């Protein structure tokens, strides 16, 4: 297992389009997290799964955002009706329960034009 | 929400110099973490600190968890060009048995002049 994998690495979309990102965590990790990072800022928490259950969503995650983790394996993050303010790096991370300091993926950079 | 103040925002140093950066919080954390991020990549964990007062080293890196649990610092000794990147502090607070969410600082951009 080579770590947390995210796809695509880059996405350019027109405003109003829907986009979906995928994250494949480290296989034995039961926790999966999504963060968003804008230029000049640290990552900000979006949502968190333990196995297939989504246990918390940040207020940053508007109704246009939805995340899933079917069967507790990979996860998808969908943004509907994208806006220019959605442009950011979307980071996925995973960990084992009780272990601090997650492993991050390389991120998906979204540009909304 | 919680805010982490990380300083300095940026540093430009000569190869071989030592570097120090720190992070302060308005509230306490149970765990402090230091990450490094290269351009276009995700953050990579450098050091994790679990107890107030703890001093931990990882090669040329040394970090400490402040006694008040509201601050941490990271030192890099004898810097080399590959130390270039953005360094982030992050705090984690256990709440009701869960220990998941990280709060990040805004980062310190380190540039090393060979």
Written description of the protein model:
The complex is a heterodimer of chains A (113) and B (114). Chain A has 113 residues and is an all-beta fold. Helix content of chain A is 0%, strand content 50%. Chain A has no helices and 11 strands. In chain A, strands 2, 4, 5, 6, 9, 10 and 11 form a 7-stranded mixed sheet that branches. A 4-stranded antiparallel sheet of chain A has the order 1-3-8-7, with no helix packed on it. With 114 residues, chain B is an all-beta fold. Helices cover 0% and strands 54% of the residues of chain B. Chain B has no helices and 11 strands. The N and C termini of chain B lie far apart (40 Å). The model of chain B has no long low-confidence stretch (mean pLDDT 92).
How helix-rich are the residues of chain A, as a percent range? under 10%
Largest sheet of chain B: 6 strands, mixed
Q: What does the overall shape of chain A look like?
A: globular
The helix/strand class of chain A is mainly beta
Q: Spell the H/E element sequence of chain B.
A: EEEEEEEEEEE
Question: How confident is the prediction overall: mean pLDDT of chain A?
Answer: 93
Strand content of chain A: over 45%
Annotation, overall tally of beta strands of chain A: 11
Point out poorly predicted stretches of chain A: none
Short characterization:
The complex is a heterodimer of chains A (113) and B (114). With 113 residues, chain A is mainly β. Chain A has strands spanning 5-7, 10-13, 19-24, 31-37, 44-50, 53-57, 65-68, 75-79, 88-95, 103-104, 108-112.
């Amino acid at each position: 297992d080579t770590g947390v994998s995210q796809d695509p690495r880059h996405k350019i979309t027109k405003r109003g389009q829907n986009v979906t990102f995928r994250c494949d965590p480290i296989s034995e990790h039961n926790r999966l997290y999504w963060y968003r990072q804008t230029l000049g800022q640290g990552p900000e928490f979006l949502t968190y799964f333990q196995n297939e259950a989504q246990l918390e969503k940040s207020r940053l995650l508007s109704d246009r955002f939805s995340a899933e983790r079917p069967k507790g394996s990979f996860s998808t993050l969908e943004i509907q009706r994208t806006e220019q303010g959605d442009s950011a790096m979307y980071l996925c991370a995973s960990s084992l329960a009780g272990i601090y300091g997650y492993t991050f993926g390389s991120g998906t950079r979204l540009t909304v034009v | 929400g919680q805010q982490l103040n990380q300083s300095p925002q940026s540093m430009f140093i000569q190869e071989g110099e030592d570097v120090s950066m720190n992070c302060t919080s308005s509230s306490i954390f149970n765990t402090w973490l230091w990450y490094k991020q290269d351009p276009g990549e995700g953050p990579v964990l450098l050091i994790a600190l679990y107890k107030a007062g703890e001093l931990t080293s990882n090669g040329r890196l040394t970090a400490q968890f402040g006694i008040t649990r509201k601050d941490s610092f990271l030192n890099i000794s004898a810097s080399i060009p590959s130390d270039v990147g953005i360094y982030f502090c992050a705090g984690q607070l256990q709440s009701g048995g869960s220990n998941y969410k990280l709060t990040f600082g805004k980062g310190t951009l380190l540039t090393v002049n060979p």
